[in-house]
Known about the structure:
By secondary structure, this protein is of the alpha+beta class. The protein has helices spanning about 15-40, 60-125, 140-190, 195-230, 240-250, 250-255, 275-290, 325-330, 350-360; strands spanning about 235-240, 260-265, 270-275, 300-305, 310-315, 365-370, 375-385.
Amino acid sequence: MRNLRRPALPGRTVRLRFTALYGVLFLLSGIGLLALTNLVALGSSRVTVPGENPQQPTLAASQELVGRLQAQLSETHTAQSRQLLIGSAVALAVMAVVSVVLGRVVAGRVLRPLRTITSATRRISADNLHERLAVPGPADEVKDLADTIDGLLERLEGSFSAQRRFVANASHELRTPLATIRASLDVAVAKPEPVPAQTIALADRIRTELDQVDRLLEGFLLLARTQHGALSDRATISLGRVVSAALDSRAADIAARSLTVHGDDVQDGAWTRGSRTLLSRMVGNVIDNAITHNHDGGWIRVAATADGATARLIVETGGRVLDQEQIARLAQPFQRLGADRTGSDSGSGLGLSIVAAVATAHGGDLDLRARPGGGLRVAITLPLADARAGVPA
């Protein structure tokens, strides 16, 4: 990996530029202050000598003239001091305003590269880590900061690429041993000679555990692919239709637990854009969670609506009153409320974490709330899309 950091040249640092700019500003402010003060102070500095008789003045007249001149000089000095004070105050106020305006303009020009770096960094996410800041300019602290961030982005891009390769390879490498074990069990049980009952019971138990491991592995790989992969099969999808399909495919499970589904508020106008596979899995996980963590004879309320620029999916279930602090942790992997919630300890703890990851990957959000009357409220918000932008799903 190339080293993007370059030592800043001592003569072209941001600190030196700030020092020079503010030094020039203060110098110009001082010059302007002195100029205004002198212009105001010199406005009335003329002393008027009263006219005298052209005849030879006497000694008494001369002394009287000297006294009048001294009094007039004292008054003139006092007036000039007052005028100087007023002029200084006016000049100080004017230059203070000018200095603030100039300082703001200069600071904006100096900090413009930092604003460029900030806005460019905010635009870069996991989907476009290949982009770089590439800030032009002298080799100073700002350039060194931009190059350091570019180096960090390059390292992050390498890490994300390694994670994507791991997800792609793990799907094959980890499923192969499971398939081999399952095939070996089938061969052992299918032998012509009588198989002991204990062996058949053990094989059934191992198959059950293998199915659980397979579901756990599938959920883990889907979670990793959602968090660190790219959405390749984007399309414009009707959230209401995905919900209806999920409910139809789980009709047998719903009937087995005698659950009542209220889905009158499932609208066909709630469209969003994203991966059809991931969004279907997201909706399926929410419905599965509502079926599994429910009591026999309970109810499920489903709503898919469009509100402004948002498509919203809300799934509510009844039950006992839950702790909101524990509910907030359900979006994290391998977090469950336990068997005391429904009398069942089934599930891998990845269902709602996959829902949260899929919603985040599509620019949405997952909100989990404990209902005051008991049960859970799951709300998913996604960006609303125009139904005419793609092929309906």
